[in-house]
Amino acid sequence: MSSLLLSKAFINGKWVDAADCDMFDVCNPANGKLIGCVPNMKIEDCRDAIVAAKCAFFSKEWSCLVAKQRADLLRVCESFKILKRAVIETVFVYTFLKCWAILMKQNVDDIADIITAESGKPITEAKHEILHGSSLLEWFAEEARRVFGEIIPSPKKDSELLVIKQPLGVAGLITPWNFPLSTITQNAGAALAAGCTVVIKPSLFTPLTCLAVAKLSEEAGFPRGVINVVTSNNARCIGEYMCKSRDIQIISFTGSTNIGKLIYRLCADDLKRVSLELGGNAPFIIFDSADIKKATESALLAKFRNCGQTCIAANRFFVQDGIYDRFVACFKQQVEDLVIGFGCAEETQMGPLINEDQFTTICELVEDARKKNACILTGGCGLPCLGKLFYAPTIITKVPPEARIYCEEIFGPIAPIIKFKTEEEAIRKANDTKTGLAAYFFTENLQQAFRVAKRLEVGVIGLNEGLISTAEAPFGGIKDSGVGNEIGRINEYINIKYICLGNLK
């Protein structure tokens, strides 16, 4: 594939095998073919990575850097190199912007091939993820220089009150398979900008993308030990060790609510800080005043991007009765026009599900809806002619409240559509879930826009918009959808310290 397709983990600036030389396979979900093998690291390997990160945190090469220097490593690694041309004795000054972000852009095709091969997502989506991931690094490079302290007016004449902000220390990052690059850059970018060092545990399904990203960080010039990658197919064992390690000050996890709660419990004994971005059950509400064309196009994006396997994917579609028939007809046409196939083809719009467990879950959800007299308007079956993990994009109407797809996070290409009459009914049904990550709604009524946005119990809202993630805005959920906010700011990785200077007579 490319020089970025690696078969070793990255610890303390070195590319290493597992201590016992054990390996595990990484396969393409579209065709089951082997892509590569990576080290199946154990507790002792993870311990080495944490020790390396801790040593790097306190080393002069990292802890003594000022904010601008950390920013430059994210953005500009080598400012100038002077080359002399002996023949004409002229000095040329070349500016090399070998930053991590720029290196990603320069290698977008190679990285996209890896993302598509191990996650199955279409190549165009993979390239978009890389550009988004790069923008996150660029943003955090600037945020490194905006960690401001405070001077607080003192109630006493002989004292001054100061507040300074300092990095937490070592950050443990447990990242998912559905966005194997951008979830790394959003968390590592924030941690590094704050002055932390990181140990990354990527998903067992997509470790190759993480290793490629680590390779580019090495080329960008980060000191050894600042970024470490531990690959393993035993997520529970490595994750539990990271959560219990006294040398890790924060755990960032993106994944299911059940695993997030387990991580929260494991971190509780040491009162370790956590940043958890967990499951969602996003409502997509379309009011009578909505622009149908915009709503349909956004619905297609919010539902079927990455085969519906995103935490902020539209999960339940609520359509007001006055516009219901027109929306369903328009949406059905666009869904049936989706190009499904292998991600490496430029025209592909939707690829396979990630694994057999996910495929089985999708089949069970559709079968449950069918048994409960829901209407399978289109799709509702696998596509074995393409491969065993391909599933047809599906629309289900007349969904009863007792159907599993009415209340469970789907994480696949199924769009259940539910009719409603009033705004009050839509809000009540949208909020009737334990999770609260994202929501979408479409209206051309300004007063309604503000009313509904305030009442939806979520952390992120797309108002007349289906693509909502951006480097500049905070991203996090409420209720069972997580703790903390990722992207936007780096506060999760910072300690606040108050200093009282007394007796200044």
From TrEMBL:
Its EC number is 1.2.1.24. Residues 15-75, 97-498 form the Aldehyde dehydrogenase domain. The active site is at E277. It is an enzyme of class 1 (oxidoreductase). The keyword Oxidoreductase applies. It comes from the Eukaryota. InterPro entries: Ald_DH/histidinol_DH, Ald_DH_C, Ald_DH_CS_CYS, Ald_DH_CS_GLU, Ald_DH_N, Aldehyde_DH_dom, Aldehyde_DH_Superfamily. SUPFAM superfamilies: ALDH-like. CDD domains: ALDH_F5_SSADH_GabD (cd07103). The keyword GTP-binding does not apply. GO terms for molecular function: succinate-semialdehyde dehydrogenase (NAD+) activity. GO terms for cellular component: mitochondrion. GO terms for biological process: gamma-aminobutyric acid catabolic process. Pathway: Amino-acid degradation; 4-aminobutanoate degradation. Keywords: Oxidoreductase. Belongs to the aldehyde dehydrogenase family. This is Succinate-semialdehyde dehydrogenase, mitochondrial.
